[in-house]
Amino acid sequence: MGLTHHPKVKEAAIRAIEKYGTGCSGSRFLNGTIDLHLELEAKLAKFMNKEEALVFSTGFQTNLGAISCLVGENDIVFSDSENHASIIEGIRLTPGKRVIYEHNNMQELRAKLEKYQDAPGKFVVADGVFSMTGELCRLKELVDVTQLGGIITKSLSWKPRDGNPPRRIVPHPPAGRAPSRHG
Ligand SMILES: Cc1ncc(COP(=O)(O)O)c(C=O)c1O
After folding, report:
1. What are the E-state strand segments in 25-173?
2. Fold for domain 59-147?
3. What residue ranges line ligand 1, CB within 6 angstroms?
4. pTM for the whole thing?
């Protein structure tokens, strides 16, 4: 959002350091939750008209945390073959079965959903913006396909603010590091 150097953000950060020091000395799970986290989460929940909100520090953690909680033992996750590494790792943490469909191929997704129509829980997950190419998820078609079976569809990754793919200025993944792949 480009707010890092906004004067009000900088002033608030300085005030926070004066009161809390330079860190929380622990993870949220242990001793790292302070009143500022709770205040932010309460405001976000109100803004989104939801009962509660939980803030993760990174997108990667969001996908790990959310996907791994939402999928149970007998559920099936349908995952786009080009999904981000964080989604792939989140799925790996679930006890459910994983079914990969060809990138943005809604016909194949539909066929796979039909094949597993008797599964108790089905979870379809796709990036809003596919980070390797900047390509957008075919959200409307995806929702149409999944609603046939009354399935809840949730795009957990970021969406473009202005409708344009994001500009990526660094190689992804960084040179020398193997990308996470389904398999
Ligand atoms: C589609 C997508 N989801 C999630 C992430 C992870 O976000 P973060 O860098 O905040 O962990 C990225 C990062 O590049 C991404 O491209």
Report:
1. 75-80, 97-101, 121-125
2. Aspartate Aminotransferase; domain 2 (3.40.640)
3. 58-60, 63, 84, 86, 127, 129, 131, 157
4. 0.77
